[in-house]
Amino acid sequence: MGDEVIRPTKQRLASEYQDVPRAILDRDQYPCTLPAASRSTHDLAYYQSILNHEYNFAPRTVCDVFEVGLDGKGNGMTRLYDDELQDYTKNSVDSNAAIRMRIIYLTSIRAKNTTFASQVSIQKSHAQKLLQAFQVSAHFVSLLLGEPDYGAPGLHHSLDPRGKLQRQEYMCQHPRWDSHIKLQPCSVYMSVDKITNVITYIVMSGEDDHCIAIAKKRIEDAFPLPTVHQSDISMAPDPFLIHHIIAHESFLQSKQVITKLRHRLYDALDNVDAYGRGEKSLDRAALRALTNELHLISQDADSLVSSTEMGTMVVERMSVAHKILKQESDASLQNAFSLVQDSLEQHVQTLHARRRWLLSYKSRKDIAMNLVFNLVTQQDSETNMSIAQATKNDSAAMKTIAALTMVFLPATAVSSFFGMAFFNGQGGYLTVTSNWWIFLATTIPMTLMLFLIWLKWTDFLNALEMVGRSTHAGWKLVRLGSRPDDGSDRTRVDSTSSGLSSLEKDVSKIV
After folding, report:
1. Which residue, 88, 85, 87, 86, is CA-closest to 63?
2. Which of 18, 154, 468, 482 could form a disulfide with 139 if both were Cys (CB 3.0 to 4.6 A apart)?
3. pTM over 0.90
């Protein structure tokens, strides 16, 4: 996939969902036939409706099964089809005492005309038989069929009349870390039957889910095949070991995504620092692209923070369920339970640390974004100052032009008024009448009078501006002076009033 960030171009998964019409409840059909099924806590009609949707299931069953026997050795069975899965389900129910743990791996693919845009790799009738045979909680049905569940993990307990734990169920959906790639949900179900001492797992994921592929290899390594002889094989595995392995592998999948995010952030920070030090010229297009990249980094960081919080919730709830099961287990199993419990607690703390790092990345992004904004603001300020200086220069030139206009305007007006009466150019000679002095006697006083009027008008406008400012300050002090026992404010009001009076006198003199 490389370092390039892949953006989704197709419709979001939510746009492919279909409303689920509630069917008439059939009390003889799963999940109504479960001993723990309750209409008050389960939407049984909803679960039956999505189970009866033909396109939610593949036309042919394909699954893998891994078993751990009483001797602690594993046995893998790959690519079980319809009849083989049916026989395995029937034989497993009849001979529960012969195994310690079973894991059933199912896959899903994206498909149209389904409830959750996903089709699980099991035939419809076999799915209901499988869920009924292993008494899978109805809460897992939607997760099995690929619904992206952003809620809390499910934890259910069944107690005997004396209050002793008989059965525990824990189900969850692990977060998807890369928001730019459409991946099928990874849902895991586990049940522990204290009567038969059998652990049942159902794992549903995408066909090419790298996380589950590695987890399967780790599970096979933990429980060697019968042909392998090892002295440290656990005779009674911790029920949450598989949950822990899958959760750990899911977390490890985040490292590549977070590493890419960190490199993108550091590259953006280097560019921002270069602009801040003046090593790069402030290019508006480059700054716009840099701002957009920081915005995308912020979005990806928010998505990773949400996934981290989701993963933390899954593992914390897993730890709670594990502690309950540990308390109800024999003393001989406490050592194995303690190892998994310690690993779960370490996993929780690691997720908390990962969340703090992601929040630190967001803080660095915010600082860089503020610096980019300040650089753009400074550039705009420099541009505005240049425009103001150019405007000032233009204003000075306009004043010069205006002054020259005032110099020549009276002469032009007088010349126009008198016309050519003082000059006579007929006969090839230019003659001036004896009344030419009238032109100078009229033009010079008019020019001086115009300059005097302009100066007086300018002083008048300046005085009015000063009066306006002083009046505003005076009224503010008057409002402050209305407070009781504040002689200093009254003194300021008196001084301001006297100042206003003197300014008004100055204005009257100018007028």
Report:
1. 85
2. 154
3. no
| Beta strands at 165-174 and 154-159: parallel, antiparallel or unpaired | antiparallel
- Give the DSSP H or E segment for 312: helix 284-327
447 is written with which tokens?
A: 């020019």
pLDDT in tens, 21-64: 887 888 889 989 888 766 667 788 899 999 999 999 999 999 99
Q: What is the DSSP code (8-state) at residue 71?
A: T
| Amino acid residing at 116 | F
Burial class (CB in 10 A: 0-12, 13-18, 19+), 353: exposed
DSSP state of 38: -
DSSP 489: H
Which of 147, 95, 98 shows the shortest CA–CA distance to 118? Answer: 147
Give pLDDT tens digits for 324-334.
998 888 777 78
Instruction: Find residue 206's DSSP bridge partners.
Output: 108
Say what angle helices 334-418 and 284-327 make with each other, to 10 degrees: 160
Distance CA 168, CA 157 (A): 5
Of residues 107 and 330, more confidently modeled? 107
- Joined together, the tokens standing for residue 467 give 């009066």
- Count of C-beta atoms within a 10 Å radius of residue 420: 8
* Contact present, 97 and 196 (Cβ < 8 Å): yes
Contacts 24+ apart (CB under 8 A), 399-402: none
* Alpha carbon distance 330, 177 (integer Å): 38
Spatial separation of the C-alpha atoms in residues 121 and 131, rounded to whole Å: 14
- Tokens coding 301: 């960081």
